[in-house]
Amino acid sequence: MSGVSRPVHFATTSRSVYPTLVGVFVGLLLISNIGAVKLIAFGPIITDGGAFLFPLVYVVGDVLSEVYGFRAARRAILLGFAMSLLAVVTFWLVQISPPAEAWGNQESFEAVLGFLPRIVLASLAGYLVGQLLNSYVLVWIKERTQEKALWLRLLGSTAIGELADTVVFCTIAFFGIITGTEFLVYVAVGFAYKVLVEVILLPVTYLVIDAVKRREPSYATSDVLP
């Protein structure tokens, strides 16, 4: 019947904060990957620009693993991998596309976002190995400690995951470019820094995990923080 207004329909959104955490996780990863293109030297210490945000990827990954389990965390990790791969392909397509005559920044674009294949492979391989190990170890420890010793699974999983990530990335990306003692220092400093950030942020991670557990109606426990 004409003139009769009909209700507009919309799908409902879930009450879970899982999608938001996944979005933050993937966003931090993509920003970190772009920052990692630049090597940074603080005196004798050499690291890359990803050091500013990449440790937070592990913090959010810990929250996902602790609250939602390995399968849900793995889904976020694989999504991050897919989005990183999409970013690499997109930047490559933009790079090889002919620049407009009035745009004179082609060389600058290539210098920053024209990722070398070796760096791309190193970043993707290190991320995938490290994050999957981090999540698996955290859940493995939780199955044995239940809701106790949260600090143990956070630090233990991060130590193993970050070590694997750092060794894989540095070896594929810079072995032969950064050599000898300098290479070992680069690996050691990168690993130590990332773990140190996790330790410093441990109180914040506790609070975030507590808040997420309380926010999720399906999380079946009353003792959310050991």
Question: Would you kindly provide a written description of the structure presented here, covering whatever features stand out?
Answer:
- The chain has 226 residues and is mainly alpha-helical.
- It has one domain: Arp2/3 complex 21 kDa subunit ARPC3 (Orthogonal Bundle).
- Helices cover 69% and strands 4% of the residues.
- It is built from eight helices and two strands.
- Strands 1-2 form a two-stranded antiparallel ribbon.
- A hairpin with a 2-residue loop joins strand 1 and strand 2.
- Helix 1 runs antiparallel to helix 2.
- The protein is flat, with a radius of gyration of 21 Å.
- It starts with 17 loop residues before the first helix and ends in an 11-residue tail after the last helix.
Q: What is the mean predicted local confidence, pLDDT?
A: 85
Tally the beta strands.
2
Structural category is: mainly alpha
* Low-confidence runs: 222-226
Biggest sheet strand order reads 1-2
Number of helices: 8
Which term fits the overall shape?
flat
Task: Produce a short descriptive summary.
With 226 residues, the protein is mostly helical. The chain has helices spanning 18-35, 54-68, 70-96, 106-113, 117-145, 150-174, 180-200, 202-215, and strands at 39-42, 45-48. The radius of gyration is 21 Å and the shape is flat.
Index terms:
Arp2/3 complex 21 kDa subunit ARPC3; two-stranded antiparallel sheet; disordered C terminus; 69% helix; mainly alpha
What is the strand and helix layout of this fold?
Blueprint: H1 18-35, E1 39-42, E2 45-48, H2 54-68, H3 70-96, H4 106-113, H5 117-145, H6 150-174, H7 180-200, H8 202-215
Antiparallel strand pairs: 1-2
Helix pairs in contact: 1-2, 1-3, 2-3, 2-5, 2-7, 2-8, 3-5, 5-6, 6-7, 7-8
